Amino acid sequence: MEDLKILPPRLLSLLDAKDCRKLLETPSGVADCPSLFCPQGGTLLLSLEREHTAAGRCLVQGIWFDTPVTLWLCQGDTTLRLTAAVHRCHIVGTVFSQMLRRAQGRGIASAWELHLLRWEETTATPPAPCPPEPVVIEEGPLRPL
Amino acid sequence: MTKQEELLRACSDYPDFSPFVLRKLSMIYHGVVLTERALRQLQSPYYCFGRLEPFGISFEGRSSELAMPGAILLRDATNVYINYGETYANPYQVDWNPDADAFLLLEDGVTLDTVDFVPRPAFFGKTTSRGAPMEAIADVRAQKLILTAFQRCRLWEGGDQCAFCAFFTGGHSLGEVDCADVYETVAEALREPGRFSEIYLSGGTDFSGDPAFSEEIDRYIRVLQAIGKNFAGRFSSQLMAPAYPKAQLQRIYDETGVTSYCPNIEIWDKHLFQTLCPGKEKWVGHDEWIRRTVDAVEVFGKGKVCTQVVAGAELATPHGFSSPEEALASNFEACSFFAQHGVIFLSTIWRPHRAARLGFQPMPPLDYYIRLAQGLHSIRREYGLVSTNDDYKHCGNHPDSDLERMD
Questions:
Q1: Cα–Cα distance between B266 and B327 in angstroms, integer?
Q2: Do A137 and B388 touch (CB under 8 A)?
Q3: What ipTM does the predicted assembly reach?
Q4: Which member of A133, B202, B269, B278 lies 3.0 to 4.6 Å from B160 by CB, making a disulfide possible if both were Cys?
Q5: For residue range A39-56, what is the model confidence (pLDDT) as tens digits?
Q6: Which of B75, B77, B119 sits opposite A110 (nearest CB)?
């Protein structure tokens, strides 16, 4: 269990910026992660609408085999590359509900806690987007009448 | 060897196998006890489950004053189901650490990881308009709402119950559930935003009627219709019930909103099935059970019919296979056969129980469960089958479907 780093103000500000594009790098390209945010300055949170996807597999790989993941924050000419440990997956409970509320009516399949390991400003560009994948199974909550 | 050393060795022997699923297997194999401090913390409003549970299993080591928690959640959200109160020889401990504000998984006082528990659903503690406690109508898993249509199993009447079963041995089961109670309980459960993504209906076997099971089938239709009043059309759901003839399954599918069906074979080997599941043999029969399970795919569709084995019971004394290799071969044969016919064959882990006919006896070695989970997952993947209804978040009781998260 690694120590939790506090994110520097520059990162927090970029995460809060409406025009910041947030990406998770996977082996098959990058996946948009618009839900990524940092509610208390330490733990990064993101949710997935579907997890039978490259992003879902990447996060599962990360937590199962202790493999850090790469996140990209892009705003205008600024690109930051973050490396984070995948700490916890939520499918129920307080964090899951918090991320569900932020999804504003769209269902979520799971919510994830990441811990920042390091970050850098870079002139590199993020990889190409992941190709679209077929829906393997229905994901998301039951919707009553 | 400590449990942690055993786990690390398994990680080394099976480097592609999820360490979290290994931990789950190890926790079920060795057992878990909750410290007094953990159990007290689990009585808090966030966690406190009901004192009633619809499957009514008898446990000797439980306090009648404290509610037992829901499933343990590992950090990756893998669910671990423990027979709390069972006497284990060398169990893990789960303690509450107030400084860390977390539950800790321990072995001999050494912290291995943080864990959590499935939180209490919002409908627990409420009653239906008839006064029935909703927690006696429905149980929950992380994202699954579980209803029991008939809280009794008639196979016990002639001593024909499955040899590994301890359901309804607690002496406080309610018999047939009331449909109005079901409707109201489901409606209340669905008020909790995003909590449930599947509804599951099961119950004890009731062969009443002519032909056999006709009363049970009518009951399941009534209950599914009561649940369905909460939805506009079909709803993500599973009926776990005996293997019915295709015409009856078509009726269930047409008259309700159910989407999947799970007639559990329990044991694939014919001789062992007949010995360990005498009631199923008597009322349906091994070959007919399989035929009906395969036929069900024509009604529910490929990947929407499952069947489960109680993995490990096929090695139980005195009737079981004499080696893990024989048991693995039998289960892999079953998985391949069913996969060819679009049926998902899953393993659930046998947790020996004193109230069951097989009694409390050692489980097969951990290595057996690892190889079984790996093999079943691999066979199903080869046939393009994904567990839509029994994955890690809907059921969480199948190590082999836990592995599908990387597919």
A1: 13
A2: yes
A3: 0.95
A4: B278
A5: 988 899 999 999 999 999
A6: B77
Mean pLDDT for the stretch of residues B364-386:
97
Considering only CB atoms, which chain A residues are within 8 Å of B386?
52, 136-137
Q: What tens digit of pLDDT does each residue of B315-373 get? A: 999 999 999 999 999 999 999 999 999 999 999 999 888 889 999 898 999 999 999 99
CB contact under 8 A, B119 and A93: yes
Q: Which of residues 179-208 of B touch A (CB under 8 A)?
A: 187, 190, 193-199
Query: Sign of dihedral through CA atoms B354, B371, B366, A52?
Result: negative
B110 touches chain A (CB under 8 A): no
- Burial of residue B25, with CB atoms counted within 10 A of its CB: 0-12 exposed, 13-18 middle, 19 or more buried: buried
Q: What is the 3-state secondary structure (H, E, C) of chain B?
A: CCHHHHHHHHHHHCCCCCHHHHHHHHHHHHCEEECHHHHHHCCCCCCCCCCCCCCCCCCCCCCCCCCCCCCEECCCCCEECCCCCCCCCCCEEEEEECCCCEEEEEECCEEEEEEEECCCCCCCCCECCCCCEHHHHEEECCCEEEEECEECCHHHHHCCCCCCCCCCCCCCCCEECCHHHHHHHHHHHCCCCCCCCEEEEECCCCCCCCCCCHHHHHHHHHHHHHHHCCCCCCCCEEEECCCCCHHHHHHHHHHCCCCEEECCCECCCHHHHHHHCHHHHHHCCHHHHHHHHHHHHHHHCCCCEEEEEEECHHHCCCCCCCCHHHHHHHHHHHHHHHHHCCEEEEEEECCCCCCCCCCCCCCCCHHHHHHHHHHHHHHHHHCCCCCCCCCCCCCCCCHHHHHHHHC
Tell me which residue in B75, B143, B197 faces A63 most closely, judged by beta carbons.
Answer: B75
Q: Does B18 touch chain A (CB under 8 A)?
A: yes
Note the pLDDT of residue B171: 57
Q: Which of A61, A88, A141 sits opposite B194 (nearest CB)?
A: A141
d(CA B140, CA B352): 22
Across chain A, which distance is largest between two alpha carbons, in Å? 50
Tokens of B72: 């343990």
- What number is the average pLDDT over the span A6-18? 93
Put simply, the answer to whether B190 touches A139 (Cβ < 8 Å) is no
Q: Is B391 on the interface with A (CB under 8 A)?
A: yes
